[in-house]
Design goal:
Strands 2, 3, 4, 5, 6, 7, 8, 9 and 10 form a 9-stranded parallel sheet that branches. This protein starts with a strand and ends with a strand. By secondary structure, it is of the alpha/beta class. The protein has helices at 10-23, 34-38, 42-48, 60-68, 84-92, 102-110, 136-144, 168-180, 192-197, 328-335, 339-344, and strands at residues 5-8, 28-32, 54-57, 75-77, 96-99, 116-123, 131-132, 149-155, 186-188, 205-206, 232-244, 249-250, 256-257, 262-267, 284-287, 290-295, 303-306, 318-322, 351-354. α6 (102-110) links the parallel β5 (96-99) and β6 (116-123). It has 2 domains: 10-213, TIM Barrel (Alpha-Beta Barrel); 232-354, Lyase, Ornithine Decarboxylase, Chain A, domain 1, CATH 2.40.37.10. The protein binds pyridoxal-5'-phosphate. The site of pyridoxal-5'-phosphate has 12 residues, from α9.
Length: 355
């Protein structure tokens, strides 16, 4: 019997990529596959998204992993890349790098020679990475003076695109457009939320991540409403069930007590697999086609569920922790986090397979 298992639905990835194209027609799509494809397996995702125009990763190692797996599309490295050796390796493997700091300009100068494609990142208001917009001229001149350096375009990132009512995105958009007006090269601004909610921010290259994996990046719109399909189906088997008398405690800390004599199920997944330990009692689990609530604390290897609503389920039957019929966004909300983190935190104990 397979314990915790994550099945990756490649058709769902392709469907979600098409949703990106529906929302941002004419744009090139660099699929964000950093953090091992948001925990789904970067090379699996990149192969399944072979129709993407490129990929976005966070580090040189992540980019090289894709190159070694035979991915030939452009790969942009969004962060890191602070030394000349890394820049030279990136050039050797035809990787694109995002330049956001003076230290990188110096590293590029030290590694100069080999042709290398770069993006210049401007800080339009998020104040994380990027050159101040006022420095766009100076930075462009310094980079253009370096032999082999080809500026692909200009890039920025939004802090609040997931909230269509937040004025910061408008201000960031204006600052970025002002700073890049008349400059040669492409524009890349949009994460998933901006693909869906900020058409003015589409530019030439969009960089969606979470929507490709089937989760909603927007507070008040579900993945279902957005026609995004879940890519990961996380399941685990029912490994025990017993009838517990009224008033008895369940699990560590005895945080939950049976209100009546009732069936309690034990499912073989816990925080040792990456199921969030902070998921409270009441977090839904899908078993036998019905939703049952988690009860008591999440343990390392198992969780306990109230089986009063699904008394007929049998040992070995698989429960869905998230996936079709039970959006990861719902579990994330219950556990006080975001689906991004749920996906990224799965541990090597989970067996991955492809559908
Ligand atoms: C610079 C950059 N672009 C794009 C993305 C993709 O964002 P999302 O997964 O919200 O679409 C990220 C993710 O954090 C990012 O850091």
């Amino acid at each position: 019997m397979i314990r915790a298992q994550a099945v990756i639905d490649r058709a769902a990835l392709a469907h979600n990529l098409q949703r990106v194209r529906d929302h941002a027609p004419g744009c090139r799509v660099y699929a964000a596959v950093k953090a091992d494809g948001y925990g789904h397996g970067a090379t699996t995702v990149a192969h399944a998204l072979h129709q993407a125009d490129g990929f976005a990763v966070s580090s040189l190692d992540e980019a090289l992993q894709l190159r070694w797996a035979g991915i030939e599309q452009p790969i942009a490295i969004l962060s890191q890349m602070l030394d000349a050796e890394s820049c030279a390796t990136a050039a050797e493997h035809a990787l694109e790098i995002v330049i956001f700091h003076d230290a990188q300009v110096e590293a590029l100068a030290a590694s100069a020679g080999r042709p290398i494609r770069i993006w210049v990142k401007l800080d339009s208001g998020m104040h994380r990475l990027g050159f101040a917009c006022e420095r766009a001229d100076e930075i462009a001149q310094r980079l253009q003076a370096l032999p082999g350096v080809q500026i692909m375009g200009w890039l920025t990132h939004f802090a609040c695109a997931d909230d269509p009512d937040d004025g910061l995105t408008d201000r960031q958009l204006r600052a970025f457009k002002d700073a890049t007006r008349g400059r040669a090269g492409d524009r890349s601004m949009a994460n998933s939320a901006a693909v869906l909610a900020w058409p003015d921010a589409h530019g030439d290259v969009v960089r969606p991540g979470i929507m490709l994996y089937g989760s909603s990046p927007i507070h008040d719109r579900s993945a279902h409403v957005l026609d995004l399909r879940p890519v990961m189906h996380l399941s685990a088997p029912l490994i025990a069930r017993q009838t517990i008398a009224a008033g008895e405690p369940i699990g560590y800390g005895a945080t939950w007590r049976t209100p009546e004599t009732m069936p309690v199920g034990v499912i073989g997944i816990g925080y040792g697999d990456g199921y969030p330990r902070h998921a409270p009692s009441g977090t839904p689990v899908l078993i036998g086609g019905r939703r049952v609530p988690l009860i008591g604390r999440v343990s390392m290897d198992m969780i306990t569920v109230d089986l009063r609503g699904a008394a007929d389920v049998r040992i070995g039957e698989r429960a869905t922790l998230w996936g079709p019929g039970l959006p990861a966004d719902e579990i994330a909300a219950a556990a006080g986090t975001i689906a991004y983190e749920l996906f990224c935190r799965l541990t090597p104990r989970v067996r991955f397979s492809l559908a």
